[in-house]
Amino acid sequence: MGAQAPTPEWGLIINTSRTYFLKAWWYSVFPGMAIFITVLSFNLLGDGLREVLDPKTKKY
């Protein structure tokens, strides 16, 4: 189940980079930052859409 080793996925990259973390920290930090930024942007997009599309939840 899930992606196999040659498939470039952020979670798989972070998982395989655990053994190299002390020597090559950037190998796991940059995919982690990409995941963080992606999730944050989707959350902000969802909040913005809710404010625009649902007038009952507007805060004054």
Concise summary:
With 60 residues, the chain is mainly alpha-helical.
Draw up the topology in text.
Elements: H1 10-16, H2 26-53
Helix pairs in contact: 1-2
Helix content: 55-70%
Number of strands: 0
Fraction of residues in β-strands: under 5%
Average predicted local confidence, pLDDT: 86
Overall, the morphology is elongated
Structural class: mainly alpha
Q: Any low-confidence stretches, pLDDT <50, length ≥5?
A: none
How many strands, which pairing sense, and closed or not: the largest β-sheet? none
Euclidean distance between termini CA atoms = 47 Å
- Radius of gyration, in Å, reads 18 Å
Description of the structure:
The protein is mainly alpha-helical and 60 residues long. The protein has a domain of 31 residues. It has 2 helices and no strands. α1 packs antiparallel against α2. The model has no long low-confidence stretch (mean pLDDT 86).
Keyphrases for this structure?
mainly alpha, transport, ABC transmembrane type-1 domain-containing protein, elongated, 2 helices, 58% helix, transmembrane, transmembrane helix, membrane, 60 residues
